Amino acid sequence: MRAPLTRTLLSQVLGLLLLSMAAALRGCSVPYQRLLSQLQRQAHYMADTGMLLDPFILLQNLNTSMLTQSCREPPGGFPSEDELRTLSRRGFLAAVKATLGRVLQGLDALSRKLKPQAWEKLPTARQNILGVQNNIHCMSWLLRGPAEPAEPTRAGPGPLLQLTPSLSLFQTKLKSCRFLHGYHGFMGSVGRVFREWGDSPSRRRRQSPRWALRKRIHRTGAPRRGKGPTSRGAAGRAPLQTEDKAGSVD
User: Fold this and answer.
1) Closest CA to 201 of 38, 39, 36, 86
2) Theoretical Cys-Cys bridge with 235: which of 46, 144, 166, 209, CB 3.0 to 4.6 Å?
3) Are residues 139 and 93 in contact, defined by beta-carbon separation less than 8 angstroms?
4) Selecting from 1.20.1250.10, 3.40.50.2000, 3.40.1190.20, 3.40.50.11690, what CATH number does the domain 2-194 have?
5) Model pTM?
């Protein structure tokens, strides 16, 4: 039942990859709404653990309840969804593109530890990431316009996956498993932020500290204790930019 669905999803993403590469060659002429739809679908597809994590767990014999639970512990290094939501749209795109570059480095490190014939999903995963990066490049171009300079990409804190010779085989498997789990979770966050974007690159909603606090309380389920000093304190701990937000809706 899953195999036909997987093949269908794969064909859709390969089609999106070809479209994104063609857009890059044409100078990013894809309309904003179509490009945003592509990014939303790509992120949704790449968040599916059946694409990398689940096959890895089976391949490395980690499919026991205890080991699977350990695999799904947060690996660290990936930007959280809250952090992504504090960025402007262009800042969000730059952060996603930089993080995906570090994911590619992690997949390269992982592939060196596995037999190529036993890990057939890695080439497809790389193609998916390159397709998203191409679309992000075009989306950044649309948001800033051809005359504006590109927003600088901030360097990440380091590799997301370091497999040193001192690690045992089991430690290597577990660390790689957590890295893949973090990658899928990150793409899930990226997809949720993209789904909140408006239907036009020129339309925006400015987030006030009070609006951001209400949204944070709604997500966490924390009780509201009042207005005034409480809201100002929360806003002071996490200042928000006043320009176009990654998580904005129109």
Assistant:
1) 36
2) 209
3) yes
4) 1.20.1250.10
5) 0.69
